[in-house]
Amino acid sequence: MPTLLHVDSSMRHEGSRSRALSAHFAEAWQQANPDGTVIYRDLAADPIPHLDLTAFSANFVADDDRTPPQREARKLTETLANELLRADEIVIGIPLYNFGPPERAGTTANPGYATHSANSASTTSASSTPSSPWHARSHK
Prior knowledge:
alpha/beta; three-stranded parallel β-sheet; flat
């Protein structure tokens, strides 16, 4: 069953051209893939926090040794990475504000979605049993 990851980042809901375009694509995709699944993430309504030391260090600590904030941060990282891994196709609605994308979409100042997802892929598990699907893919 095919999966589409649909991401919107415009702070505007009414009158947003990027949202209208990404919704148009998603609707056409659903018609072409009636048995498909759409994963939707709205970066304006549910912003992804900056990658901080807690989230980054959670990747180097076994799950049983993580603090509650590290567990929560790692859960978000794995959720975002799994959304990307599950997707066969991705549509991202990104507006331009003052000739650049919004911060929540992923810029130098706040990589957001991309950093958390790549963070999962670029680190190794401290436990002997990898808990992330990234590990399974890297060994194929």
